[in-house]
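Figure 2 data, in text form.
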Amino acid sequence: MLNLMLKSFGINSSMLHSMMPQKKRTTNLYNFRSQITKVLISTDLASRGLDIPSVDLVINMECPRKPDAYVHRVGRTARAFKSGYSLTFVNQYSEENLLRVEQYIGIKMGNEMT
């Protein structure tokens, strides 16, 4: 749904998920790496094992249950001493996940919206 919405706004995006054929995943990942598409929407499929050198922003639509999954996701922005941004949406159902992540990384994250 998010991919369709972005495309309707004229944002060139692609997606990765386990229900698509491997050939399509490979094509979409190539398009993102080579900056043909500027936005890659993915499930946890892309949280580990993919070398994507230039990622400026990671948006988590929900806070991961496992703190190390969070670290691997947002770590996509910190390759080769580069910096980047991450945004994580937290609701009443994932607040405990956020607390576990904060404890794991030793940082209290900002609450930009109250």
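Caption note: The helical segments are 2-8, 22-33, 67-74, 95-105.
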